[in-house]
C-alpha cells in the first residue's frame, strides 16, 4: 500500500492550488486504509479508541511504516504526536473534542514552532495571542518549515502553535501552546467556518517530496482563534508542553533514520545477491573465470555487514528507549524509584536515538548506493531517493548539534549525575558478567574499555564547565554524543548476540533461524571490532583539547 507510493510521492510531490495543498495521487486512499486497518491505533490509549499497546511494539510498527514511505508517514505521525500532547496536557473537554478525532485519523495535526527570524532560538518567536471576551485568543504570526502544514488527507488539521500572550515575559518562559484548527468546529464536533489559517508557500526540498513543508500564516485577516492547551491556567507553559511533542518527534526522527536505512540495506542486499560482475578473488588471474554475484566480493560483504550492524544496532537502541518508557508508565504510582530510574534513561537516550539514528541512517543510505555502484546513483533503483530523503533527519526537530548540546549540557548532569552513573553501571554489570565469555569475551572487554573512555570524557566535559573552558564543550559535544551512541549500540548488539548464540543451538543447521541467529552474532562482533574501538580514539582526541577551529581567524578560512 505505502511502498509503491514512495516513488510516486517523490516524483510528483505536493501542489498548492487555490490556497490548499494537494498531496500525491494515492495518498488519500492510503491514509484511509491505514486508519481502517488500525495501524495508527496500536499505541493509542484504550479510553480514546486505541489498543493501548506498549511503545516498544508501537516503535517497530512505526519503523515499518516509515521504511515503506517516510514522506507519507510524517502526516499520521505528526497527527499522533499532536494528539498525545492534548491527551496529556489538555482539559477533559479538549481531549474529547480534539484528541480523539486526531488519533482516529479524522483530523490531522502539526507542531508550529519555527519562525522566519527564529529557528532554533524559539524564545524569539513573535507570534502573538490576544484574549477575546469569550475566552478564546486571537492568533497572529507566521510559522515556517511546518511539516504536514496543510494537506487533503483529513477533514481538518489541528495546529499546535507557540505564541506569546499580550504582556507575557520575553523568551521561552512567556510562550503558550495553543490549539488552532484550520477549520473551526462546533460544540458537537462538526466543522464550521475557516479559521484564517493560510498556506503562504510550499518549500521545494531535496527529498521527502511527498511531505508538504509549509509556510503558514495565522490571522492575516484578524480572524484566527485558538485555545490554550490545558486552559488558561496553563498560560506561559507552552515550552514544557511542546517538549512532550518535541521528544516524541526526536524519537520518531531516529526511527525514520533506521527505517530508511533498513530499506536501503535490504535493497542493496538483494541487488548484491543478483548482480554478477567480476570473478572471485580466488581466480583473479584467470581471465576465463566465471562472473560471480557481487556479494562474493570482500569489500561488498564488508559494506553489507556494516549496514546490517548499524541498522540492527540503532533499532535495538530505539526499542531500548521505548522499553524504558513502558517501564516508566508501568511503575508510575507503584514504584517511583524504578520509574525515576527508567525516566532518567529515557532522557539520556533521546539525543542518542535522534542524532545517531539520523546521522548513521544517512550513512547507510550512502553505503547502499556504493554497493550498487553507478546503478545506485540513478533513479532506476530506490537507494538514491532513500539517501535524499534521509538527509533531512539530522536537521529537523533540532539539528544534531542541538541534540549533542542537550546531552552534554543538560542530560549528563540531571539528578546530580545519577542517571549517567546508572547508565554506566548497567554497562559495567554486563561487562563483569560476560568478559570471560568464550565467544564474546574479547569484544566485551573492548566494551569495558569504551565504557571507561566515555566515563572519563564525561568528567572532562564537567571539568571544562567548571574551569571556564566552556568553548570546548560545543566544540566537542557532537563527538561525545557519537561516542556514547557507539558504546550503547555495541552493548545492545552484544547483549542480543549472546542470546542469539544460545538460541541458535536449539535449531537445526538447515532451519532459517539458524542463519538469522548467526547474523546477529557476526553483526555484533563486526561492530565491536571495527567501530567500538573508535570510542577510545575519540576520547583521546577530546583529551588533546585541539582548539584549531577556535583559533583560526574568519579571514583565514579563505582559500585565495
UniProtKB/TrEMBL annotation:
GO terms for cellular component: plasma membrane. It catalyses: 3-(methylsulfanyl)propanoyl-CoA + oxidized [electron-transfer flavoprotein] + H(+) = 3-(methylsulfanyl)acryloyl-CoA + reduced [electron-transfer flavoprotein]. Residues 111-219 form the Acyl-CoA oxidase/dehydrogenase middle domain. Its cofactor is FAD. Residues 424-552 form the Acetyl-CoA dehydrogenase-like C-terminal domain. Involved in the assimilation of dimethylsulphoniopropionate (DMSP), an important compound in the fixation of carbon in marine phytoplankton, by mediating the conversion of 3-(methylthio)propanoyl-CoA (MMPA-CoA) to 3-(methylthio)acryloyl-CoA (MTA-CoA). This is 3-methylmercaptopropionyl-CoA dehydrogenase. It comes from Labilithrix luteola.
Amino acid at each position: 500500500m505505502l511502498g509503491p507510493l514512495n516513488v510516486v510521492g517523490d516524483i510528483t510531490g505536493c501542489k498548492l492550488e487555490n490556497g490548499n495543498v494537494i498531496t500525491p495521487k494515492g495518498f488519500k486512499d492510503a491514509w484511509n486504509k491505514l486508519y481502517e486497518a488500525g495501524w495508527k491505533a496500536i499505541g493509542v490509549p484504550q479510553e480514546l479508541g486505541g489498543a493501548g499497546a506498549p511503545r516498544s511494539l508501537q516503535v517497530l510498527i512505526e519503523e515499518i511504516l516509515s521504511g515503506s514511505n517516510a514522506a507519507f508517514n510524517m502526516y499520521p505521525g505528526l497527527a499522533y504526536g499532536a494528539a498525545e500532547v492534548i491527551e496529556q496536557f489538555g482539559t477533559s473537554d479538549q481531549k474529547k473534542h480534539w484528541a480523539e478525532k486526531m488519533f482516529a485519523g479524522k483530523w490531522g495535526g502539526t507542531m508550529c514552532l519555527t519562525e522566519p527570524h527564529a529557528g532554533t532560538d524559539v524564545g524569539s518567536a513573535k507570534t502573538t495571542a490576544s484574549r477575546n471576551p469569550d475566552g478564546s485568543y486571537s492568533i497572529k504570526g507566521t510559522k515556517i518549515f511546518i511539516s504536514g502544514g496543510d494537506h487533503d488527507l483529513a477533514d481538518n488539521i489541528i495546529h499546535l502553535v507557540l505564541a506569546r500572550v499580550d504582556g507575557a515575559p520575553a523568551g521561552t518562559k512567556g510562550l503558550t501552546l495553543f490549539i488552532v484548527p484550520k477549520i473551526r468546529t462546533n460544540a458537537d464536533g462538526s466543522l464550521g467556518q475557516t479559521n484564517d489559517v493560510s498556506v503562504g508557500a510550499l518549500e521545494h526540498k531535496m527529498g521527502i517530496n511527498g511531505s508538504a513543508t509549509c509556510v503558514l500564516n495565522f490571522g492575516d485577516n484578524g480572524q484566527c482563534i485558538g485555545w490554550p492547551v490545558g486552559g488558561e491556567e496553563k498560560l506561559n507553559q507552552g515550552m514544557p508542553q511542546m517538549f512532550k511533542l518535541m521528544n516524541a518527534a526526536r524519537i520518531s526522527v531516529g526511527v525514520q533514520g533506521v527505517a530508511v536505512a533498513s530499506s536501503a540495506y535490504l535493497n542493496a542486499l538483494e541487488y548484491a545477491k543478483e548482480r554478477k560482475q567480476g570473478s572471485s578473488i580466488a581466480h583473479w588471474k584467470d581471465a576465463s573465470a566465471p562472473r560471480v554475484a557481487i556479494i562474493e566480493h570482500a569489500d561488498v560483504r564488508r559494506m553489507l555487514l556494516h549496514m546490517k550492524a548499524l541498522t540492527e544496532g540503532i533499532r535495538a537502541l530505539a526499542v531500548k528507549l521505548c522499553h524504558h518508557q513502558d517501564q516508566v508508565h508501568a511503575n508510575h504510582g507503584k514504584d517511583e524509584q524504578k520509574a525515576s530510574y527508567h525516566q532518567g534513561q529515557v532522557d539520556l537516550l533521546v539525543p542518542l536515538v535522534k542524532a545517531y539514528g539520523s546521522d548513521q541512517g544517512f550513512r547507510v543510505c550512502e553505503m547502499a548506493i556504493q554497493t550498487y555502484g553507478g546503478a545506485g546513483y540513478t533513479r532506476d533503483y530506490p537507494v538514491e531517493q532513500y539517501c535524499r530523503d534521509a538527509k533531512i533527519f539530522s536537521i529537523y526537530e533540532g539539528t544534531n548539534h542541538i541534540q549533542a548540546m542537550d546531552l552534554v549540557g543538560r542530560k549528563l548532569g540531571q539528578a546530580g549525575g545519577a542517571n549517567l552513573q546508572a547508565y554506566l553501571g548497567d554497562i559495567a554489570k554486563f561487562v563483569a558478567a560476560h568478559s570471560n565469555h568464550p565467544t564474546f569475551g574479547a569484544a566485551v572487554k573492548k566494551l569495558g574499555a569504551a565504557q571507561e573512555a566515555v566515563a572519563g570524557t564525561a568528567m572532562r566535559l564537567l571539568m571544562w564547565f567548571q574551569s571556564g573552558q566552556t568553548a570546548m564543550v560545543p566544540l566537542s559535544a557532537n563527538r561525545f554524543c557519537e561516542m556514547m551512541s557507539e558504546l550503547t549500540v555495541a552493548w545492545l548488539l552484544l547483549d542480543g548476540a549472546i542470546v542469539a548464540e544460545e538460541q541458535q543451538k536449539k535449531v537445526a543447521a538447515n532451519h532459517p533461524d539458524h542463519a538469522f541467529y548467526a547474523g546477529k552474532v557476526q553483526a555484533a562482533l563486526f561492530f565491536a571490532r571495527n567501530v567500538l574501538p573508535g570510542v577510545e580514539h575519540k576520547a583521546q582526541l577530546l583529551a588533546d583539547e585541539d582548539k584549531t577551529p577556535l583559533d583560526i581567524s574568519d579571514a583565514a578560512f579563505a582559500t585565495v
